[in-house]
Amino acid sequence: MVFARQAVWITGASSGIGAAMARALAAQGARLILSGRNEAALNDLAAQCANALVLPFEATDYPAAARAADMAWQHSGGIDMLVNNAGISQRSLAVDTAFEVYDRIVAVDLLAPIALTQALLPRMAARKRGRIVMVSSVAGKVGSPMRTAYSAAKFGLFGYADALRAEVAGLGLKVHVIAPGSIRTNVSRNALMADGSARGTSDKAIENGIDPDAAVRQMLNGIANDEREIIVAEGMEKQIGELRRTPDALHDQMAAVVAAGYAQKMEEGATQ
Q1: CATH number of the domain that residue 178 is part of
Q2: Contact between residue 31 and residue 54 where contact means Cβ atoms under 8 Å apart
Q3: CB within 8 A of 237, min separation 6: which ones?
Q4: H-helix or E-strand containing 53?
Q5: Mean pLDDT, the chain, as a whole number?
Q6: How many domains does the chain have?
Q7: Is residue 2 in a domain?
Q8: Is residue 70 in some structural domain?
Q9: Nearest CA to 137 among 121, 150, 123, 119?
Q10: Catalytic residue among 62, 102, 150, 160
Q11: In-domain check, residue 73
Q12: What is the pLDDT of residue 258?
């Protein structure tokens, strides 16, 4: 019961991985903040989870995200774990895809989680404890056809998280990136087509994917064990993720560079 009594904020909580994670954490006695766009679905989920606060907002409404961060922090007396799970996928060839699709997916999948993390980061750093979780994808480790926008955004999450982890390791914060493969959710139905419309149908790989509850158990076990990259996939997808896994020694090396005064030296050099 690692997460008992901890305040955990989950975005994209109305369905799929987010909803499954909320139920699993509620069973452990966590205090939940549930966010997403579908307020009715969030309220239904909150009714299944004791001690849950619903904070609906559009992920790309950054001022609203900042206000939600204030409310979540004040309500809970601090956030122990932020799970940036909200996202949208893609099913279209780059040659056919309107730029507006790239704009939308990068905003939702990359900039929105960065914005929310940045809204909480100074307070978490001052408190000197907490976890930041980014839900990326195996498609964030290797470029996947018909997902150029999605892969670009999910690769970006790894880059932001890796750099952030090196910066905050000495402050007592932990940063985790989850790379799911095919999980049985509505991700394919909600994926954007070349013109920005929702696909409306699922993929065979997704329909035959890992059950969300089973996937979440792996995710939470990885977080509890302080794993920095948590790959939740099967078959070839798992092999791809493991092949592109960043070695822990490299994460440690980057954190050591920061601990040795890298940022201070850069600031001193800029003022000379």
Answers
A1: 3.40.50.720
A2: no
A3: 138, 181, 182
A4: strand 52-54
A5: 96
A6: 1
A7: no
A8: yes
A9: 150
A10: 150
A11: yes
A12: 96
Cα separation of 36 and 57, whole Å?
6
The range of the structural domain enclosing residue 177 comes to 7-271
Residue 75, H or E segment: helix 62-76
Pairing of strands 173-180, 130-135: parallel
Q: Is 98 among the domain residues?
A: yes
**For residue 83, what are the β-bridge partners?**
10, 133
Is-contact 159 187, C-beta < 8 A? no
Pairing of strands 52-54, 31-34: parallel
User: Which amino acid type is present at position 4?
Assistant: A
Nearest 5°: the CA angle 111, 254, 140 is 40
pLDDT in tens, 199-252: 999 989 999 999 999 999 999 999 999 999 999 999 999 999 999 999 999 999
Annotation marks residue 150 as catalytic: yes
Cβ(106)–Cβ(152) below 8 Å: yes
176 forms beta bridges with 133
d(CA 166, CA 118): 15
- Conformational region of residue 233, where left means phi above 0, alpha means psi within -120 to 50, and beta covers everything else: beta
- Cβ proximity of 15 and 186 under 8 Å: yes
DSSP code of residue 60: T
